[in-house]
From TrEMBL:
Molecular-function annotations in GO: protein-arginine omega-N symmetric methyltransferase activity
Family in the record: Belongs to the NDUFAF7 family.
Signal peptide: none
Taxonomic superkingdom: Eukaryota
Subcellular location: Mitochondrion
Protein's UniProt name: Protein arginine methyltransferase NDUFAF7
GO CC list: mitochondrion
Location (main, coarse): mitochondrion
Disordered: annotated segments: 1-23, 72-113
UniProt function note: Arginine methyltransferase involved in the assembly or stability of mitochondrial NADH:ubiquinone oxidoreductase complex (complex I).
Enzyme class: transferase
Keyword annotations from UniProtKB, A to Z: Methyltransferase, Mitochondrion, Transferase
Species this protein is from: Oryza meyeriana var. granulata
Length: 420
């Protein structure tokens, strides 16, 4: 695109300086090393830039403001030493003088004000030790919870962390059953135990009218030994095994892998995904973290063997101010100890519910009471499911027909260790 006429005329009327009059690049560098030479160059270019020597209409070229000689002198030296800082400006000197005046005025104001702080009432934590601790990671975790809360935790929370903490829990990362574990359950002693439960399950299925599909649910299946014996014992009853949809409620990834192997499971492609099938009977197998996650809508057979006795409990003790919850706290030597809650806790609601099932005479005789809210909740879930879907439940566990006062105890390597 052609330039407008007035711009063409302006360009023609403003001659460019001849190249012969400009210094070479090397000469220009030398000039800028010398402040005097740089000033002379600027004087030579001034008439050409302003248009005074070209005649006619002048065209103004804009250049940055000239650099002062003091600034150029900083670049003219070839010394490698650091340049000295520039002297302070008049304004800076005025500020410094003003500050000095203020300091003199404050010095003439009389005696200085002194402030002291009484730290005698402040908390002085013990000196931090860098010595290696003998506490396990789980013990450190429990102590950190108590310290973070600035107070004790319930026995139920203590049990839940010890048993089912996602990283450090007793049931989570290892197989605790059998002769090499900490305790043995009935299915590990004889296969007849699981086979007898299989007979009960088939009888219940027939009583329900032999439905084509039925949910077989086991809570806390351990190694899966009980269910494997049940399926092997009922393998000849094809209609029953074909109707089964097996659902295992298990929160431990380690135990889930063991159950997968015990039940001879394999993964089969189904559409765009896969499903797990037990080769003992061909029934599909599913794992869930809780009973609520098991799909409803089918007749249900629920089995719970030594499941409820591993659920967290709350403990209460009678005191002069009434029933108080037993809590777990840290002693001065950083060991665990039992304490009583200074204020009523929310768990007292479950205590009043539990005490409603016993006579006042029996309640007067006891000093300690255990309550398991989780067991109450799961029992209600089982009752609601059977009421809506039909079926039955078989619960096998240790218990007492009355108030349980103190059943918390420790077993190690299949031997009783201590009461807690």
């Amino acid at each position: 695109m052609a330039a407008p006429p007035h711009l063409l005329s302006a360009k023609a009327q403003t001659p460019n300086p001849p190249l012969s009059t400009l210094p070479s690049p090397c000469a220009a560098v030398e000039m800028f090393r010398s402040p005097t030479a740089a000033a002379a160059l600027l004087r030579r270019l001034a008439p050409r830039v302003s248009g005074g020597g070209g005649g006619g209409a002048a065209t103004r070229w804009r250049f940055p403001p000239p650099v002062s000689a003091s600034v150029l002198s900083r670049f003219s030296s070839t010394s490698t030493s650091s340049p000295s800082p520039p002297p302070p400006s008049a304004a800076a000197r005025g500020d410094e003088a003003e500050d000095g005046d203020h300091q003199e005025e404050s010095g003439d104001s009389g005696a200085r004000l002194s402030i002291t702080v009484d730290r005698s009432g402040l908390y002085n934590p013990p000196e931090h030790s860098h010595e290696p601790s003998s506490d396990s990671e789980l013990v450190k975790h429990l102590k950190s919870i108590i310290k973070f809360r600035s107070g004790p935790i319930s026995v139920a929370e203590y049990m839940e962390e010890v048993l089912t903490n996602p990283q450090l829990g007793f049931y989570i990362n290892r197989d605790v059953f059998g002769t090499s574990g900490d305790f043995i359950t009935s299915p590990e002693v004889s296969q007849m135990f699981g086979e007898m439960i299989g007979v009960w399950a088939m009888c219940l299925w027939e009583q329900m009218g032999q439905p084509e599909k039925v949910n077989l649910i086991e809570l806390g299946p351990g190694r899966g030994t009980l269910l494997a014996d049940l399926l092997r014992g009922s393998a000849k009853f094809v209609n029953f095994t074909k109707a089964l949809d097996i659902n295992l409620v298990e929160c431990s990834p380690t135990l889930q892998k063991g159950q997968y192997n015990t039940l001879k499971c394999e993964d089969e492609p189904v559409g765009d995904g896969t499903r797990t099938v037990s080769k003992l009977c061909g029934a599909p197998v599913h794992w869930h973290a809780s009973l609520e996650q098991v799909p409803s809508g089918l007749p249900t057979i629920i089995i719970a063997h030594e499941f409820f006795d591993a659920l967290p409990i709350h403990q209460f003790q009678k005191a002069s101010r009434g029933w108080c919850e037993k809590m777990v706290d840290l002693a001065e030597d950083s060991s665990f100890r039992f304490v009583l809650s200074p204020q009523p806790t929310a768990s007292l609601l479950y205590l009043s519910k539990r005490c409603g099932w016993v006579s006042s005479e029996e309640l007067e005789k006891v000093e300690h009471i255990e309550v398991c809210p989780k067991a109450m909740e799961i029992t209600e879930q089982i009752a609601d499911r059977i009421s809506s879907d039909g079926g039955g439940a078989l619960i096998i566990d240790y218990g007492k027909d009355g108030i349980v006062s103190d059943s918390l105890q420790v077993w190690i390597l299949n031997s009783f260790y201590c009461k807690i």
